[in-house]
Design a protein that fits this description.
Number of strands: 33
Helix content: 25-40%
Distance between the termini: 126 Å
Shape: elongated
Radius of gyration: 39 Å
Oligomer: single chain
Number of domains: 5
Number of helices: 20
CATH superfamily of the largest domain: DD-peptidase/beta-lactamase superfamily
Largest sheet: 7 strands, mixed
Length: about 750
Amino acid sequence: MNNNTKTFAKFYTLIMILMGIISFLVIIPRILHLQFIEGDKWRALSEQVEKSRYPIEAPRGNIYSHDMRLLVTTIPSYYLRFDFKANIVLKDNGQFFYDNVDILASTLSDVYHDHDQQWYREMLIKTYKRINESKKGSRTAKLNDKRISHSQMLKIKQSEAFDKKHFYHVNTLSVDTIYERRRPYGQLAQRTLGNIYSQDQYNSDLTRIYRRGSGQNGLENFFDKNLRGSDGIQQIVWAYGKDVRLNVIDPIPGNDIITTLDIDLQDIVENELEKKLRLMGGKWGCAILMEVNTGGILACANLGLASDGNYYENDNYAARRVEPGSTMKTMSIMAALEDGLIQMDDIIDTGTTGSMRLNDRVSSKEERPITDWSARFHSGFGKIRIEEALYASSNIGIAQVILNAYGKNYDKYLERLEEMGITDPRSIELNNAQEPLLKTPPAEFTFATMSYGYYAELPPIYTIRYYNAIANNGKMVRPHLCRAIAQNGKIIEEFEPEVIRNKICSNRVLKQIQSALENVVWSDKEVWFEGEQKMHRIATGTAARSKLVRIAGKTGTVQLLVNKTYSTQRHRISFCGYFPVEDPKYTCLVVIHDPASPGAGGSDCAVVVKNIAERTISLKQRRTPQQIAAINNGAQGLPSIKTGYEQAIYQVQKEIDISREDVTAKKRGTRILSFQTSTENGGHLQTSERKINTDNGLVPNVLGMGAKDAVYLLERTGMSVNMHGAGKVVAQSIAPGTKTKKGTIINITLR
């Protein structure tokens, strides 16, 4: 190292030492000053900056029907806040605020319409003093506790008070955005779609469990994470001589849910269910319409009776466990058939009284008897085939079949139900949806009642899932409400049908069960009721018969527990079926709980399913009401006219355009005319005159007549008339032309 280099090194070292001394003497004292002298000031400023950060709530996603009609959307409303510590507000020691407060007060009065200008002036001054005299707390305050719309907010921001010529720069305003959920279709499917929390929900220890705006129930709850989005953060900063609000983190809107719901079908299902509930005075009811192939829920109505006498969507009854009643019989028979323990043609003796005790099989004599609906006619079904026991809905018959088949091997029966998919937990997208409860019965009597719908508990959504599998050629699919999730109009996730069981049973058993369910509605088999000395048609679902669409299904009735005892006067009734039978497209279940009428049964729900089916088919085929009426009232689109007096029939023929021949009704005619539909040459009504003379004591022919005309003619002969059914007379107990005595009782059946 030469001398020059040594000299430079010494000089450099000296400089570094001097800089260190200066740093120690200048910088360290400054650090100490900032920490101990001005520390409170800067910490307060830091806290103020932190407090000026505000969360920005993310817009919640929309919920759509299957065809993208808006079911639930988010509408923003706003609270306006004013920064009473903004520099522009404090200009000239606050004099600027006082000089211009009247302009702001006038604007607020004009927009909110709740107080006059003087009231707002006093409120603003009071708030200004409170905030600026306090060293702690927020620097902003709400201008009003009422929310305003976007247009109202713009009216304030663009008013004279915030014009650049005046004092209050628009950045002195901040906005709290509140997102409200709105349903364009009102309360339709409300419980299925769900609600959101209107405010934060807390535990007893004040820890928050649900934030305001999160899903409370229904799809809003199940898909809350998808719908919620991600909140942003906004901060007020001083820039360019004014306070500026900047988004530190932009909010990310929630995703949209595209459901399987059909809003037109939902309206039909709710309407038909509510009409029946009002007519029968039911405590609650649910109705579900499901697409056979996919398991998509097209409509789901849950209506409960409120204290004001109206029905509202107040609970998800479709997902609540209940004893299913006689809809369970189909499952029991299918299980025994699949296990090879019975044949549909096997004969079972149900007795002649409609009541049976299992005294010879159980130790207790206190257990209630097993009864059939025929008991109210003091009769039983006698010896019938197992299939007939199913469509007659015989408790005695089904109980005996299952007891004989399984004996005390209850677990084998339950294992078969499990293999058929009855208890599989995969169900609809509703949080807190209950699962089936099928426990091993403690005794033979309990096992007997379980076979026809007691002791076991199934949510209605599981019942319809099973019947849908029957309609779907044995393939059980999961019921579902969500078709897809979308983001900014693009599908990001699509849900395919989920198969639970490819086959719930063999094809042989499936065909037998399908045939039996069709007979529940369409069988005309009659059994002699000894107690009434006449024949009774035993199929329980005939109320579901329609000339527009062929329906198959099963009725259900279950007594309700009242004070731990099953009441014979209180019931839950149901019908589950599918249509059209020849190519099933839809499965429908209707349940009505505790109707006021003690004689109510599954046939009452069958009527609702029929109405839903007819309206569904007409909607999908775009048939007019006139076309539907034509199909319902006669073959080949021709209306059916009851046999009756000429004057009334003349008016009918005058009002509707029909093809007719032979006899034409006259306006003042006195004849009785009857009709027969012809399908030749495009179809027409063949009209003929029916000769009736009631003065000779002979029984008249009233077949085809309405109730009014039939009763009038029969009573003219001196007979007493008992009527059964509604519609046209299809049977009379005494043949036409028979000589009778006054007071003779004649029974007529109408359909």
